[in-house]
Amino acid sequence: MDVIFELKNEPEWANEINDDIKASFPEYFATNPLIGSEAWWESIDEDVINGKITHVGNFIEDGEVVDIVSILPLDEDFNGDGAYSVGQPEFSVLREDFWLNDVVKPEALVQIKSVTVRPTGELDEHSVYIETQVGVS
Question: N or C: which end of the chain has fewer CB within 10 A?
Fold first, then answer.
């Protein structure tokens, strides 16, 4: 699997997130390490989504043309014929940044690692979804 995005290699990516959380929820850092720090990387429990790319390119949404990558979720062994996706529908991401890589094409397999930071302790409008790594084969 070709890693097309590795957040650990991005300099200073967490500064703005940390500043926003410090301003709105300073108590969060009393029990949690700074986002992006070594301690943070060691403490996170990444979610992993495996899938198959089903569409790359333009799509009409609400009367506007958007450039997307559509992904059908698969199980941890990259198996599934759509049955696995019951309750987990195909989802799309905007085709920008690392999603413009040449390996991103229909039928390719993709693995997305992510973490959701919950400054309030709940999954709400203040939560921050962070993709930590994306691989494609």
Answer: C
